[in-house]
Amino acid sequence: MTIASNRECEGRVAIVTGASRGIGAAIAERLAEAGARVACSARTLTPVEKYQGSLTETVERITSAGGKAVAVRADLNLAEDRSNLVSQTVEQLGPVDILVNNGAITYYMPFTEFTEKRWRLMFEVQVRAPYELAQFVVPGMIECGEGWILNISSRAGIHSQGPPFDPVEREWGFSAYSMAKAALDRFSTTLASELYPDGVRVNSLAPWDNVATSGASTHDLVNKFNLEDVSLMAEAALALCAGPLSLTGNVAYSQPLLAQLQRRPLQR
């Protein structure tokens, strides 16, 4: 199946969390290029020396290219920020048609050393926040008769195969991260089933190979790993945020999905 890539999101409003850099920024820019008005959200509003990328920079790139975007700072660990993100988006851009849950905070460490504070923070940001943001936007989607929810996941959510097991999992301390991503995948498929009669598409998407973002570099997930360009995730996300109702309930991976849809990133 091939989906046309020209202004597929014209007139729609999208929220993209974790949009200050990396995969989130690339998805926000691709949705805007396809015609969406995008609320870009993250904790880093303006440039700071500690991090690469900020919301103002993402919005500037979108608007400079002729798109429409606003920055809404939000800490997804805070319930009031999650609520404000949606209300500010509706106030500035209109009812939400597309929700991309990309925001994350991640720690890798051995199971026996993982603290309750870090575990709760990871699950609040990566599981609770997507769940609650979906609760906020789904009523409006149902009223419109269509909507798109995309949860950004990871191949770490796939069940381990063994014995013998991949030594990477023991060496890197993936237990909490894998739990969060597996929960997000299962939430996606269950919600897709629940909302299918209402015309709301729900999918999960992960990179097939690691993406060389600043976050991945921080966790040393770039060296010695196969890498893919961030444009593959952005294009795959667009396909799932503009696709027909038949394209729902997937736990998808960037490169296989694009091959299935006979789709490639735009040549720039």
Q: Keywords for this structure?
A:
268 residues, alpha/beta, seven-stranded parallel beta sheet, two-stranded parallel sheet
How would you describe the overall organization of this protein?
The protein is of the alpha/beta class. It has one domain: NAD(P)-binding Rossmann-like Domain (Rossmann fold, 3-Layer(aba) Sandwich). It is 43% helix and 15% strand. The protein contains nine helices and nine strands. It has helices at 22-33, 55-64, 79-92, 116-144, 167-172, 175-195, 214-218, 230-240, 254-260; strands at residues 13-17, 37-42, 68-73, 98-101, 147-152, 200-206, 210-211, 227-228, 251-253. The strands form two sheets. Strands 3-2-1-4-5-6-9 form a seven-stranded parallel beta sheet, sandwiched between helices. The protein has a two-stranded parallel ribbon with strand order 7-8. The radius of gyration is 17 Å and the shape is globular. The relative contact order is 0.15. The model is unreliable at 1-5 and 216-223 (pLDDT under 50).
